[in-house]
Amino acid sequence: MAAKVLTIKPEHLRKPAARVARLLMRKRLAVADSLLDKLDDPEAVHEFRVAVRRARSIEKAYRPYLVDAVTPKLRRRLKDVVAATGAARDTEVQIERLHQRCADPRPHQRPGFDWLEQRLQHRLAVEYEALRATLAERFRLVHKPLHARLKARYADPGPSFAEVTAGMLLEVAGEFALRCAHLDRDLDEGPLHAARISGKRLRYLLEPLTAAFPQAEALVGSLKVLQDLLGEIRDLQVFGRELAEASEEAGAARMRKLIEMSLTLPFDSPELARGRQQDERAGLMSLARELQTRQGDLIEHLRARLRDGAAEELVAGVRALARDCAHAGMPQSDPQPARDNAG
């Protein structure tokens, strides 16, 4: 289930940036608050994570206009809430990837697949237990005072929401264009991650505008295609590191088990013979090869889209939207009274 995207109305465009930013933050945090009693459901945890992450993205984007409402202490607590859900999300993605493997494992690979799934399921259970024990209270600790401060009345001098947002759209779109151009030369993990984060910032600026500007929705869709590619590549990189760590642990555990069996069983014991044949690392290596193949395919797909100008076309659309947004934020001039030309 896709998380609900909250948008602004056209009449918000001319209102002070600080006022609209507080409204957006408050609405996103309210969505998260409504999910606190459902955190046993992984889908609710995902929606909670997205809602809090979007609230934090508003705070980061409009920080100069939110200094009165969001104190550094509340900002840190909000960041901690977002971080607390990250590990479980990575584990869920890895379990899903394991279930979507290209082919059923061969008999000699099955021990590695089964061992890794047990390892990931155990970790996920521990992570969810920690979330259920602490996440709701940690969120309430930040939400109660933050909600009150976001709802308070302020003088709100300064530019309109549309004017500020137009400037940020130009800035972030320019950064995204540079990040994507850099990928033509360097597709290492660092540049890929930087492009993914830049795209996420741009998307979180565009999404609230989709009700006020019809073209914004198409831009979000185009951006999501690139984001999905960058995101899956990132997930594969994280899973690759997991496999490397798992192979070390599996090898050590297997050797320890064989030594213990050798100390207690005869040399020609069938159980000891089976233990020598059962090696989880074969399955882990098979998974690693599948990940490498999939990652290579995704990178080629990403390169093809970038060569075809997907990023440039998207950025051009965002710049046009920024111009429309800036124009929409201009004060409406009072109509001039008609002249009486009668003599």
* Total tally of structural domains: 1
**What do the pLDDT scores average to?**
86
Number of strands: 0
**How would you describe the shape?**
flat
**CATH 2nd-level architecture:** Alpha solenoid
Can you write the helix and strand succession as a string?
HHHHHHHHHHH
Which regions are unreliable across 5 or more consecutive residues at pLDDT < 50? 337-343
Structural class by sheet pairing and helices: mainly alpha
If you consult CATH, what is the topology?
CHAD domain
CATH C-level name: Mainly Alpha
Strand-residue proportion? under 5%
Report the sheet with the most strands, covering strand number, pairing sense and barrel closure.
Answer: none
Radius of gyration: 26 Å
CATH superfamily: CHAD domain
| Helix share bin | over 70%
Q: Helical segment tally?
A: 11
Kindly report how far apart the N and C termini lie: 70 Å
Pfam family, one: CHAD
Protein name: CHAD domain containing protein
Domain CHAD: 10-304
Organism: Thioalkalivibrio nitratireducens (strain DSM 14787 / UNIQEM 213 / ALEN2)
Walk me through what this model shows.
This protein has a single domain (11-146, 157-328), classed as CHAD domain. Helices cover 74% and strands 0% of the residues. It contains eleven helices and no strands. It has helices at residues 17-34, 42-61, 72-84, 86-99, 110-151, 161-182, 189-206, 214-264, 270-277, 280-307, 310-328. Helix 1 runs antiparallel to helix 2 (42-61) and helix 8 packs antiparallel against helix 9 (270-277). The longest helix is centred in the last third of the chain and has 51 residues, at 214-264. It is flat and about 90 Å long. The model is unreliable at 337-343 (pLDDT under 50). Pfam families: CHAD. It comes from Thioalkalivibrio nitratireducens (strain DSM 14787 / UNIQEM 213 / ALEN2). This is CHAD domain containing protein.
